[in-house]
Specification:
Blueprint lengths: L1 E3 L16 H22 L4 E4 L5 H6 L3 E4 L5 H14 L5 E4 L8 H10 L5 E6 L6 E7 L12 H11 L4 E3 L3 H4 L5 H11 L3
Parallel strand pairs: 1-2, 2-3, 5-7
Antiparallel strand pairs: 4-6, 5-6
Helix pairs in contact: 1-4
């Protein structure tokens, strides 16, 4: 499994209206640590790809591995990590974002189980249904990464172009990512007992 991350200093910039830089870094660290620990319960081999070497202590404390990204950009980093996975003869690949506060091991297992047995794609959309919070590929080398605005449609279109089955995995733990002040408010409301 690959978990891309921008690094703590560059994370959660859309929360700048409500959180200080230190608070955003602390939140990003907590989210990433939790996602890595949860992911490793379901998939033992987890690699974080990031331009930030400073993530090493956090990543290694969870039992995951850090690969420092050479270039810039989310999709470029994922291609670098995928190339390493293919070189290690990984047959199926999962990509999961590091800001999923409701993620459970069952969510990770469901995404992995949804990847078609011989050849295909599993897509876990975000809550809005337009982004991609999780992606599963078999074999690992298929499908170009298209993370960014409208990534769900882009991944579905890329799968269709290659004649690949695409399974949609809709689970609250995979769908809820924490990006905006509204997301933060929803998450905090869930954490406060009624």
């Amino acid at each position: 499994m690959i978990v891309p991350h921008r690094g703590l200093a560059a994370s959660k910039t859309r929360l700048a209206p409500v959180l200080s830089p230190a608070e955003r870094g602390q939140l990003a660290a907590g989210l990433l640590e939790r996602v890595l620990r949860v992911a490793r319960e379901a998939i033992p081999d987890v690699v974080v790809i990031s331009p930030s070497a400073a993530l090493a202590p956090l990543v290694e404390a969870t039992g995951a591995r850090l690969t420092v990204q050479r270039g810039l950009g989310l999709n470029e980093g994922l291609e670098q990590a995928r190339a390493a996975a293919v070189a290690e003869e990984v047959t199926a690949l999962l990509v999961l974002h590091g800001d999923l506060p409701l993620l459970s091991p069952d969510d990770v297992a469901a995404l992995a189980a949804a990847v078609p047995a011989t050849r295909g794609v599993a897509i876990a959309p975000d809550r809005a249904g337009t982004g991609t919070n999780g992606l599963g590929l078999r074999p690992a080398s298929i499908l170009r990464f298209a993370f960014g605005t409208g990534s769900r449609a882009a991944h579905e279109a890329a799968a269709a172009e290659e004649g690949l089955p695409a399974v949609i995995v809709e689970r609250p733990g995979l769908a809820f990512d924490l990006d905006t002040p509204d997301d933060l408010e929803r998450w905090l409301a869930r954490r406060v007992p009624a």
